[in-house]
Amino acid sequence: MTHKTIDAFILVFLCTAITSAQTITSKVVDKKTNEPIPYATVQVSENQGIITNEEGRFSITLDNISKEIDSIYISSMGYEKIGLAVENVTDSIIYIAPKAIALKSVFVSNKKLTVDEIIENVEERLEQNYHFDLTQKRLFFRQSEFNSLNTFDIEFKKSTIEELNKQFIDSVTKLIPRKSEYYTETLCDYYGGPEKRKINIIKAAELYDKNNSGSMEALSERLEKIFKENVRPDSYLKIKSGIFGTKVQVDSILENNDEATAAKEELDDKKEDKSHFLKYRRSAIQGLFKNMFFQEDPTLNFIRKSNRYEFKLVDYTYMDDSSVYIIDFSPKRKEDFKGTLYVNTENFAIMRVDYENVKLLRNFRLLGLSYKENVYKGTTIFTKGPDNKYTVKYLEKIKGNIFGVDRPLKVIEKNKHVKGRRKQNELALEIDAGIGNVNKYEIVVFDAKQISEADYNSSQENTSIKPEYLSQYNPEFWKGYNIIEPNAAIRQFTVAPVME
């Protein structure tokens, strides 16, 4: 058997069977339609498991489970729950069948409730159904950021500096990347509540193209050199954009270059500062948990301000062996969201919510500057813990915005210490730029438990962990850890080679 044949055999075996490290990798599919089932639960114990990604894929390492496991259980809203012996999970695809719903009357109590009464019960039982105290969560957090330069036109008008000519401006427009992707993955323990938070990072990775940042640094250095060679230190710059203008003293920018050097060194230190990464991961996770619909004054206000929304009971289904109401909601007048609630018929807990904005959340335009917050949507799925309170099992949020500039820009160097005209140099441009940004946040919680104030105070943040840079997706990086499987875009990401 050749080396290539052996490698191929190992690859197939890893993808379709249980490995020696007791890892199961598979895909959950609808038995009737053959479509993948996103957000299906793969349970291995009462409060431990994983969830399939948007493509129905999952991978779970049984070595990380606290007790010996002989079976896994797969369930999804509206489907039959199935149990599989670990030793029998040898297929790369697992089929589950839709669950037949019996007569709707089985979901309805003796006293038939209107949809408004159901929502009133939901709001009244928020304190009973959700955690408002301190908890510890083992979770995996992935942030995917996509930037696109939809429009970028610079019309050259005038320049008295030879190097800042039309050819240079054209080269700048070609250098700036039109699209970029940036992925951050973090496995951690999160301690806290709405107002308190700590994070202990176990492992982290960053996946992006370093060539983009490198090309911008080279551009910055080139501009700095041109600036030094052509502008007098005792001059001042008058910067005008339309009717607005400001003055900047050149020597305050270039004074022996000490401040510029110090600023660069500080920036370099921040890049190496491990606590800088921890601080932003902690803040992002807290922001996602703090804005849940059951918290005080959330952006997602369809429960806290339910009188501003219309609710419609549309159907019934099963979720985690519980019967649930399916309720659509939409704004009455000026509110921002529509979506679907899945409400437990017994305790009135919202077990899942899907939502999306119905209008621009922000829309600013003034004198050639514009900003639109055009995307705000997501899905949150909850699971009931041993204390009968619900905690997040999976959270997905997508936020998008568009920033635009359509303005003239004029930079004039003036100097009052020279004879003759004060104006020394001038650069005039017309800028038309449109930049789109989309952030996708995903959290999967593997385990959660309530903790005391003393437990929280004694918990420690690990500032020694630095994210590892990856120039392409590496399936070995998270081997032995439970995460939510990457989608096709992440699996196929790779940095293009730099052209000489």
List the helices and strands and how they pair.
Elements: H1 3-16, E1 23-30, E2 41-45, E3 48-51, E4 57-61, E5 71-75, E6 82-85, E7 93-96, H2 115-124, H3 126-129, E8 135-159, H4 166-175, E9 179-192, E10 197-208, H5 210-230, E11 236-241, E12 244-249, H6 250-254, H7 258-272, H8 274-290, E13 309-319, E14 322-331, E15 337-344, E16 350-357, E17 362-366, E18 369-384, E19 390-414, E20 423-450, H9 453-458, E21 468-470, H10 488-491
Parallel strand pairs: 1-7, 10-21
Antiparallel strand pairs: 1-4, 2-3, 2-5, 5-6, 8-9, 8-20, 9-10, 11-12, 11-19, 13-14, 14-15, 15-16, 16-18, 17-18, 18-19, 19-20
InterPro entries: CarboxyPept-like_regulatory
Protein name: Carboxypeptidase-like regulatory domain-containing protein
Pfam family, one: CarbopepD_reg_2
Features:
500 residues; alpha+beta; Immunoglobulin-like; 2 domains; 14-stranded mixed β-sheet; 4-stranded antiparallel β-sheet; 10 helices; 21 strands; disordered N terminus
